[in-house]
Design a protein that fits this description.
Elongation Factor Tu (Ef-tu), domain 3
Length: about 500
């Protein structure tokens, strides 16, 4: 069942289904609360993903130039100019360099000892040769880059923490499963074992050791900075960004839209602003704040839009959506150019769609519908530390429980099997009967929901797992077989 069908079934059961937007929104809220709680409550067979997350190779430059720039008392910063023009160059388009944002930068060889140490890569220029870094320290106003002139240092970029997909809510397994893609020095396959951060500290597992990883340590928060978190930067509509219908240009599907913005820092997307609704006849034009003027380097701008009412694929039929689409995840090929991300730098104050740096148009609804839907953005982004740290590109197979996101559109369907939808409906009926002051029916549907939950647990939670134990060796002159028969044991879960 989709959201509309579940809402209709609930209305039929409770015998109350007014076609009032406020009441339908309340029913949708109840459905989503129950759905998300159910989906994330257990490691179901259907709420797990396996994905390869690739590590990044170390990069070093022994003749880099570092100087103080953009200093402020709150966010001290330094700039690094790399010696080789090919250093970090990428063929991935204008924003291909985003892949190293947020990684650890090790500076050594400075004549002023305080300038040596760990930094965070806040921003990479598109040409790959200019870095904006900040001190890896909670008391950075006292420990920042000093000096007015540039000096030559050694610059190393290391991936010490592996950021997991943004929908990850619980890690189930980490390992190397594909030797063909394993990098140099990573010659072992198999499962890796987790270790508590307390044990990591007790064993003194150093951050700079490299080799074949055998252990992973979980981090539920980005560990690199204390004062700068992207969630602390919430853009305000009509203040931090504005949108108008540009008088000339075209290249956009006319209609009514909602536009919103979020900042992106160190590869993480922050909270989305309140939307701005506007009718577009030509094309949207945006105005942004230059956040570097406050010393906030690396706060890139990411735009989302929602189709409120535009001409559909059929003449005279309007198309509308309840969810936002993410231009920052849009990849477009056509017109002789490839655009990998629609995102604006921290220094940019103006932007137009179609994008000013690429040849592409969004003057057809079919093209607009190719823009990916906005994905879930969780407050706590999971990271892990691998020990030893792989210094080459290595595919780490991650199996995890994921967060499905809310059902926003009437045609959205839960990411769970069809036979689990009755549980959502019955539990929602229980909640609504309580709101309607009918405790007897609330108790009745509570029991029905509990029955459905037990069915789900038997079908999608409990598994019988077997293992085989090799028997002990026998010795002696009459021994014909050195091993006993394989012994069938019980499951790892005790069943």
């Amino acid at each position: 069942m989709n959201l509309s069908e579940m809402r209709s079934m609930i209305g039929s059961i409770i015998d109350y289904d007014p076609q009032v937007t406020s009441y339908q929104d309340e029913v949708n809220r109840v459905i989503n609360e129950i759905y998300l709680e159910f989906f994330c409550s257990h490691p179901w067979k259907f709420n797990q993903k396996s994905v390869d997350v690739y590590t990044k190779p170390d990069i070093a430059d022994t003749a880099a130039s570092i100087t103080q720039t953009g200093y402020s008392e709150e966010y001290p910063s330094a700039a690094v100019t790399l010696s080789a023009s090919t250093f970090l160059n990428s063929t991935e388009g204008r924003f291909g360099q985003l892949k190293y944002d947020g990684e650890v930068v090790v500076i050594s060889g400075s004549a002023t000892n305080i300038n040596n140490g760990l930094y965070i890569l806040d921003k990479q220029a598109a040409n790959g040769t200019a870095l904006q870094i900040s001190k890896y320290s909670s008391n950075s106003p006292r420990h920042h880059f000093t000096g007015t002139g540039a000096e030559t240092v050694t610059c190393k970029i290391q991936q010490r923490y592996l950021t997991l997909p943004q929908d990850c809510i619980n890690i189930l397994s980490v390992g190397i499963r594909n030797l063909e893609e394993a990098g140099v020095g990573t010659n072992a396959l198999g499962h890796m074992y987790s270790m508590l951060r307390r044990r990591d500290e007790e064993f003194n597992l150093r951050d700079d050791f490299t080799g074949t990883p055998t252990t992973w340590i979980p981090y539920d928060q980005p560990p690199e900075t204390v004062s700068r978190r992207v969630r602390d930067y919430i853009p305000r509509a009509n203040k931090d960004f504005k949108v108008v219908d540009e008088a000339a240009g075209g290249g956009w599907v006319p209609g009514t839209y909602e536009f919103a913005m979020a900042y992106e820092l160190h590869g993480e997307v922050g909270p989305m602003s309140d939307p701005i609704q506007i009718t577009i006849a030509q094309r949207p034009k945006f105005t942004f704040q230059d956040t570097t003027k406050q010393g906030n380097f690396g706060l890139r701008k990411r735009i989302f839009f929602r189709l409120v009412s535009v001409e559909g694929l059929s003449t005279g039929v309007n198309h509308e959506e309840k969810f936002f689409r993410d231009l920052g995840a849009f990849t477009y090929q056509g017109g002789g150019a490839t655009l990998n991300r629609v995102i604006w730098e921290d220094t940019e104050t103006n932007g137009q769609l179609p994008y000013q740096d690429a040849w592409w148009n969004l003057n057809e609804l079919a093209t607009l519908l190719q823009v990916p839907r906005k994905t879930v953005t969780l407050d706590n982004r999971w990271r892990i530390r691998l020990h030893p740290r792989p210094a080459t590109q290595t595919p780490m197979r991650i199996r995890y429980m994921y967060y499905p996101g809310k059902l926003l559109d009437d045609y959205d369907t839960p990411n769970s099997p069809t036979d689990t939808h009755r549980y959502i409906v019955y539990r929602a009926c229980q909640e609504l009967f309580v709101k309607h002051k009918n405790p007897e029916m609330a108790l009745y549907y509570e029991k029905k929901a509990d029955d459905e939950m037990r069915k789900c647990e038997r079908r999608y939670l409990n598994e019988r797992s077997h293992y085989y134990i090799k028997g002990s060796m026998r010795s002696g002159p009459l021994t014909l077989r050195p091993f006993r028969n394989l012994t069938h044991g019980t499951g790892a879960d005790g069943t």
